[in-house]
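Record format v2
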Amino acid sequence: MSGYVEAGYAVVTATLSIYAVGLLRRQRSVEARLRDLGAAREHR
Amino acid sequence: MNFREGERKAAAPALNSRSKMTRSLLVLGLILLALAYVLFKGATNSLQYFLTVQQANASRAKLGDTTFRMEGVVVPGSIVATPVGVDFTIRYSSSLDRVIDYGTPPQLFQPSIPVVIQGHFQGNAFLSDLIMVKHSSNYVAEHPNRIKDAGGTAS
Amino acid sequence: MSVPRLSSRRLRSALGVSALLLVGLTFWLGLFVTPPAEVMGNLVRLLYVHPPVAWVAYLAYGVTTAASLLYLWKRTRRRAFDLIAAASAEVGVIFTGLTLATGSIWGRPTWGVWWTWDALLTATAVLFLLYLGYLALRMVPMPEERRGVRSAVAALIAFVDVPIVHESVYWWNTLHQKPSVLNPSLNVEVHGIMAWTLLLGFVAFTLGYAWMTWTRYEISKRRLLLEEAGLAASIDDRMPAAEVVR
């Protein structure tokens, strides 16, 4: 095509992918910590 | 965004909160500075982004040789490529101006396309150093069946 | 402690997956199926990305504004609204950034310039900075409710720029064209499969926005739960929980 089209699609894909993957990772880590917290409470 | 680092430092007492305050105010200050710059550029450019050829010709004496942007349509058949750029006639309604442009016109530059040019009047011509193509909001497929009708294949 | 309910979790996952599929479909149609356009040729393919992304930015700030209003009104003041406002603004800033980036990439070959200070572009840059400022304001340490109120007020002020951005092409002379879809007559000035692809783009990115904002909100909610339990991970390692002051 022209390079510009590809660049536009690439910028959108890259930005949104990075953000979405970041969200998933943050979600997983915060949920893991909440589970740890629950387990610690039960332990006590 | 605010919580991203927050989780680690959240409950950390005053020790951290001071530097966090300084840092966040610094970030806020930088953003406000950028905002002021953009608003200044807006105030000096956007409010009167261009004059039409008609308006420019009407206030030609007042404009003198000040630099401004002018809008019009490229008159078909008027385009002449020159060693430094391109010459053409620009039209808005019944007003015309001869344009001498220095620099490469954008790839969509062509007869009958609306353009915004930047430059100033000199003698009988408008000396431009920037041509911008003003695209309409209509999108129509490029002669959809032209190639097929001719027995070819699109590539 | 609210362990996420399975049903809402599944709904959110389904939302995420469908957003991903529809964005993929939009990209495939946009890049390979739709025809090149008159005048623009292949550059028209950025049409399926740039307006939908800009629309999502408007939508995100609309949600932030609604949530901020609900937070400001004492009878409906709930922490959830503050968190939703923040989550939506964060996603909005990303989409505004993408609007500016894709617009610039599209502007270079069509207009001939990466950037120009016309009213629409300038107002969009202002929009980006206003909401970036909103997010920065939220990082300033202060008591939760005060932060909530102040950010909500800031959000309302920032939203004033959204109609300005949208109306700028009518109020002032601009290089940017008038909207092809969200125009006053809602007359789609795009033809055939190009129009369908564009509309699909709007739907796809809207779903993506919904998934991102929802997920971001759930993360904030859980982080607050953690903070309130006084057990942020690093502190947990260093001192007994009892000593942690909230």
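Helices of chain C lie at 6-33, 50-72, 79-110, 119-139, 144-159, 161-171, 192-228, 233-238.
Chain C has one domain: 12-223.
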